[in-house]
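task queued by scheduler; priority normal; single chain, no ligands, no partner chains; default sampling; output format set to structure tokens
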Amino acid sequence: MSTLDDLKEAFAGESQANRRYLAYGAKAAEEGFPGVARLFRAVAAAETIHAHAHLKAMDGVASTQANLADAMAGEKHEFTEMYPPMVARAEAEGNRKAARSMRFALAVEKVHYELFEKALAALAAGTDLAALIVRVCPVCGHTVIGDAPDACPVCGCKGDRFDEIA
């Protein structure tokens, strides 16, 4: 085991804690516990600080162009190699919730890849996406530039429920 291995493990743990605590905070808010929800969100923010520090210590943040290329490689891995066998396994086991979740992610990772590809092309042309309006489906994560569709093409969620990302 090396320090780099330790940093990778710590990064993964902090990243997962952030996501869990945000989900726990949403549940606490839903159940009428705003103080507990706020606490979960605060600790999630702290976990993000830890994760970012570990990633930087691994020299894991490069130029925007390199970061886009890395993001594209990750998204491509997810929709070509990672999710297809996971979906098949969940379906074979009859785990409908898992299969649905993974099918949604698989479909959306392709979209993310294409969006990163457009951003990389914009950088290559010497431009930015500054005027970009991005919206995300709150059910499956489908991501669109500009207006939301009437219904999400992945999960069917109504477009007026899409979140605009600042």
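post-processing summary
- The helical segments are 3-30, 34-57, 64-92, 96-124.
- The chain has three domains: 3-57, 62-127, 133-166.
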